[in-house]
Design goal:
Elements: E1 12-19, E2 25-31, H1 34-44, E3 49-51, E4 54-60, E5 66-72, E6 77-83
Length: 85
């Protein structure tokens, strides 16, 4: 997709999958400038960690759900997987 309303307008080459209802999932990836990613992470409350050229965040729930975020600083590529379970 060219754009979505829940990502900064600078996000490009967006791919996503979403399933609503019980057992919901929302997975997406895109190319985004690092400054815009950092702003998005702050807005979402993602406390980022860094390893090599990757920024990441993970929060798991006891039921196995949660969110995992990876941002590759070299390729400017963001990947987010979130699920109820």
């Amino acid at each position: 997709m060219d754009s979505v309303d829940w990502l900064p307008s600078s996000a490009a080459d967006i791919n996503y999958y979403k399933r609503d209802g019980f057992g919901w999932v929302k997975n997406y990836e895109c190319t985004i400038p690092e400054d815009d990613f950092l702003s998005l992470a702050a807005k979402k409350g993602w406390k980022l960690q860094e390893e090599d050229h990757v920024l990441f965040y993970e929060k798991r729930h006891p039921n196995g759900g949660g969110v995992t975020v990876y941002y590759d600083r070299d390729s400017k590529r963001l990947s987010v997987q979130s699920s109820h379970r």
